């Protein structure tokens, strides 16, 4: 017992320290301005779009991906409780009652024998193997909780991106339908002119071809909008009729995020992104497993005791035993040393994964910033282009009706106008999606707490 108390303060294997990962001192890409970005947890609320809010609430409340992440948390907590139980003694009790006798002519009475036994054992954690196992389990629990938050952020980003895609699809469909109505009207006027002999039949064919092409484009765009609705149904878990009702309750406009600034530095991503916290906790768990493997190479001491009661035909006995058992790994062919080496290899792998994840996180933020900056700077030019082409089409239609230009020139002007309009919508859609990507890359406003010290009985994280 004195030896166990002496060794209780030490545990074999490395004492974990958070890896010092090199990150840039500042962002290299242009930063947006006017406001703050990193304090918004439910970042989608800034769009002030009640339809998006409703879809997000439904998705967060009923998501298979979040259910799977919650189950992983429960499993990690159960494994942690199991590891902690090894630090305590185990006690097992058994009891039995039997009757026995010999068949004789005068009918001898049977003999009843009753026994009870209580066995206890306690393996002293001399070299900290159990403590390292608990340390590993605690780190894995923290990792699974971070994974849950990462799943929540990813789900929110996917819902928002799909919703923005649907609204953009509606705007594109509206542009195609406007063009279709105009081309059908032109085709009707052209056919009347052909019948009257004022226009060549070739112009009639050109007008019909233009209207047919516009109709095909509108049908294809409408199909894409339907695909987006199906995606929103799957993400939100709502009935399709409810989703259609929500989407139809507002006009077809793109949600606009509030302009925000990025006032954090790359190093802060380590506590702003739950996936990085999960990767770091995996490194901590792998480090503790080295201690578990190391402890298995040392002797183990187990205290065993038992007491039993046996009663039969008015007589009873009370045997008992108590004593230590020392187990020494004398020869195992290098298996225990190999397990230590495997644990160290797992640690190196987890550390490499963590480093790679940090670099990827920095890259994702930098790329989102570059794309967002490019989209913002291009939007004014795209808007002027679309407005100019629309004005040119209006003038070309009036000129064509007056006989001042050919139908071919009018159709060319229309194609240029619809292309410019679609480019503007796509650019506006991309700008909003880049904002969403930036929020996701910055961790969605989530902030890591210190490694969890809460009871392992704590419920899974609430769905916000």
Could you please describe the fold and organization of this structure?
The longest helix is centred in the middle third of the chain and has 68 residues, at 129-196. The protein has helices spanning 2-7, 50-61, 64-85, 129-196, 201-236, 240-247, 269-272, 274-295, 335-401, 407-441; strands spanning 90-100, 111-124, 300-312, 315-317, 320-327. Strands 1, 2, 3, 4 and 5 form a 5-stranded antiparallel beta sheet that branches. Helix 3 runs antiparallel to helix 4 (129-196), helix 4 packs antiparallel against helix 8 (274-295) and helix 9 (335-401) packs antiparallel against helix 10 (407-441). Residues 33-40 and 450-464 have low confidence and may be disordered. The chain starts with a helix and ends in a 23-residue tail after the last helix. It contains 10 helices and 5 strands; from the N terminus they run H-H-H-E-E-H-H-H-H-H-E-E-E-H-H. It is an alpha+beta fold and 464 residues long. Strand 3 (300-312) and strand 4 form a beta hairpin. It has a single domain (10-14, 21-93, 114-441), classed as Up-down Bundle (Outer membrane efflux proteins (OEP)), CATH 1.20.1600.10. Belongs to the outer membrane factor (OMF) (TC 1.B.17) family. InterPro entries: MdtP/NodT-like (IPR010131), OMP_efflux (IPR003423). It is found in: Cell membrane. Residues 87-112 are annotated as: Disordered. This is Efflux transporter outer membrane subunit.
């Amino acid at each position: 017992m004195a030896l166990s108390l002496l060794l209780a303060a030490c545990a074999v294997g490395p004492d974990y320290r958070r890896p010092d990962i090199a990150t840039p001192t500042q962002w290299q890409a242009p930063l947006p301005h006017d406001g703050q970005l990193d304090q918004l947890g439910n970042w989608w609320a800034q769009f002030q779009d009640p339809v998006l809010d409703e879809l997000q609430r439904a998705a967060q409340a009923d998501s298979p991906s979040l259910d799977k992440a919650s189950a992983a948390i429960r499993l990690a907590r159960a494994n942690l409780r199991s590891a902690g139980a090894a630090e305590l003694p185990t006690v097992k009790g058994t009891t039995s009652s039997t009757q026995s006798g010999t068949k004789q002519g005068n009918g001898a009475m049977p003999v009843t024998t009753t026994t009870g036994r209580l066995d206890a054992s306690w393996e002293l954690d001399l070299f900290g193997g159990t403590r390292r196992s608990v340390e590993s389990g605690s780190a894995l629990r923290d990792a699974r909780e971070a994974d849950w938050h990462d799943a929540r952020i990813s789900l929110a980003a996917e819902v928002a991106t799909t919703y923005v895609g649907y609204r953009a699809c509606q705007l594109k469909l509206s542009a195609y339908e406007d063009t279709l109505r105009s081309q059908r009207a032109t085709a009707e006027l052209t056919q009347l002119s052909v019948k009257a002999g004022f226009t060549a039949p070739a112009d009639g064919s050109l007008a019909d071809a233009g209207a047919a092409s516009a109709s095909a484009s509108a049908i294809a765009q409408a199909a894409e909008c339907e695909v987006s609705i199906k995606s929103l149904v799957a993400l939100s878990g709502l009935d399709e009729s409810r989703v259609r009702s929500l989407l139809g309750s507002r006009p077809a406009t793109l949600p606009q995020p509030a302009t925000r600034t990025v006032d954090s530095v790359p190093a802060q991503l380590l506590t702003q992104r739950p996936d990085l916290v999960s990767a770091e906790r995996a490194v901590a768990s792998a480090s503790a497993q080295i201690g578990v493997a190391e402890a298995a190479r040392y002797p183990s001491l187990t205290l065993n005791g038992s007491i039993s009661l046996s009663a039969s035909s008015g007589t009873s006995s009370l045997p008992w035993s108590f004593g230590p058992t020392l187990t020494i790994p004398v020869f195992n062919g290098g298996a225990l040393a190999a397990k230590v080496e495997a644990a160290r290899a797992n640690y190196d792998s987890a550390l490499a994964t963590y480093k790679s994840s940090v670099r990827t996180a920095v890259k994702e933020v930098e790329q989102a910033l570059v794309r967002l900056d490019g989209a913002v700077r291009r939007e004014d030019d795209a808007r002027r282009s679309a407005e100019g082409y629309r004005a040119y089409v209006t003038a070309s239609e009036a000129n064509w009706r007056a006989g001042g230009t050919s139908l071919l020139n009018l159709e060319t002007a229309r194609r240029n106008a619809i292309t410019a309009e679609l480019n503007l919508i796509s650019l506006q859609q991309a700008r909003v999606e880049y904002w969403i990507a930036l929020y996701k890359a910055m961790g969605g406003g989530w902030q890591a707490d210190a490694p969890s010290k809460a009871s392992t009985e704590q419920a899974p994280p609430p769905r916000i």
